[in-house]
Amino acid sequence: MSNLKNNLRELLQKNNLSIAEAERQAGLRMSALRNIMRDQSKNPSVENLNKLATLFQCSITDLICAEPPGERGGALKKIEDFDILVEFANLVQKLVKENNFNLSFTQYSKIQKECYYYTIENNLSELDKNFTKWFLLKEMELCIKEK
Predict the structure, then answer these.
(1) Pick the CATH number of 2-71 from 1.10.760.10, 3.40.50.720, 1.10.260.40, 3.40.50.2000
(2) pTM score above 0.85
(3) Does the N terminus or the C terminus of the chain have fewer Cβ atoms within 10 A?
(4) Of 34, 17, 27, nearest to 51 (Cα)?
(5) Chunked in runs of 10, what are the mean pLDDT values of the chain (147 residues)?
């Protein structure tokens, strides 16, 4: 959780925002960000992370990875490992069929991007299947809530 907290602290400073103002602008309930910053929220929802990523114009991966968003250089501008993308496609196809999800291309692309970046940013040699499953399920929960 410290990566998230550190990155959020940096983004708040960079954007000259207080915690309360960031919560308001992101559309978070009062104390949602404050609880993350005080380590009282051990597992923030994808919905809240998505709102914060939108506010700061970054990805969820940017929020949770070890390197702050401004220090990543060009590592994410090109595809470094196509095998990870193939693993992703196979896993998501399996999960979509098993759970009977109706996944749009936009949703698929967003999930693929987040999972790929997470894998590369954490220097993993293969797709983090647990993160991918978690992220896909949280995204689908969010879509169901929005309907």
Answers:
(1) 1.10.260.40
(2) no
(3) C
(4) 27
(5) 82 92 93 90 83 88 69 53 89 89 83 85 87 86 61
